[in-house]
Amino acid sequence: MSGIQKYDYVSRDSIPSRLIDPISNLPLVNPVELPCAHIFSKQPLVERLAENAFCPTCRHQCDENDIDSITERLFILMLEDLTVRCTNNKAGSGCTWTGPRKDLANHLTPDCPFDSIPCDLATSGCTWTGDRQNLQTHLATCGFVQIDCQHKSLECRWTGQRQHPDNHLKTCDFVTVHCSESLEGCPWEGLRSTLSNHLSTCNFVKIPCEYAELGGSQMCLHKDKRMLMENHVERCNYRIVVSAARGILAIQQQQMEGLQRSLRAEIEEVRTTSNSLFGMHRLLAQVERLKERVVGRVDGLTQRDVHVLQTIAEDAESVLLRDVLMPGNFPSLGEASQNHQIAASQEGQGENPIS
Fold first, then answer.
1. Where are the zinc fingers (TRAF-type) (predicted)?
2. H/E element holding 68?
3. Cα torsion 290, 292, 296, 301: sign
4. C-alpha dihedral sign at 111, 112, 115, 118
5. Omega of the bond leading into 327 within 30 degrees of 0 (cis)
6. CA 69 to CA 76: how far, in whole Å?
7. Is-contact 339 330, C-beta < 8 A?
8. Cβ-contact 44, 29 below 8 angstroms
9. Which CATH number does the domain housing residue 41 bear?
10. pLDDT tens digits for 278-337?
11. Is residue 127 included in any domain, yes or no?
12. Which of 76, 78, 150, 295 has the fewest CB atoms within 10 Å, i.e. the most exposed one?
């Protein structure tokens, strides 16, 4: 019967008996009527009829199907206008609100400051529950509230739950930090985002000797603060060895560069010769075609003329080879042909044509 016990009535004894449920002895809630005209609160009646199918007042036989809701407006208004206290009034303390029963639900949500509610972030995992009036106080410290980084003004864009800011601040680039060598005497402090740049020049950072390694071999093992390393380097026993090695490496580098230049020159010479040989091949092909044309037209020529033409063709071939391989040292192809013609004319004039 919990459904009808949630109300705390003011002046309970002054409520008319016709508004009282005979079963619960409390004011009617959701009133219903049986065929015998007796009125009850619905929930207690349904529970009673499930046990005994008789009217609780007159013992008239009936069941749940015989129940009818009361819709008489005046009767309903009388019930709903009964004065009740807020359910959060606990033994005289807590909420002091009183009013018509019909207004209690509206008072409890969302007005009653004493109503017990969960945290707004219950779905995020917060298990807090308390009076509505204490919710804002709780939210001010709730670990599940989303907050910005305290360095938002410096453009940090982090947001997260209030309970985890320390994890973020351990890595936040906008937190002011001291140099990691502060215990060694470095006075620097600045944003974490600039620490690495500072350490690259910090005089208090210990660095290895510049002669610590050469060609993968370990050498000087000395480490010291950056501000003191220059003095060590000037007297380091490995300085002479490394300087000599660097000189040898420089000479080898120069030799390598000279070899590279020589190789490039030879490659260019080979490329030029290749192009010349290609040109010679084309000229020889032309000479062969010319020889074929000349041989094809020897009809009617004298034996001397044939000899002259063959000689010219052979000389032309040798001249072409010479021009490709050693240009400028011999007569041209035209000069060679003219010389042979003169020599031929000076020979015997009376030879007969070939028959």
1. 107-157, 168-220
2. strand 68-69
3. positive
4. positive
5. no
6. 11
7. no
8. no
9. 3.30.40.10
10. 777 777 777 777 766 666 665 555 666 666 666 766 666 665 556 555 554 445 445 555
11. no
12. 295
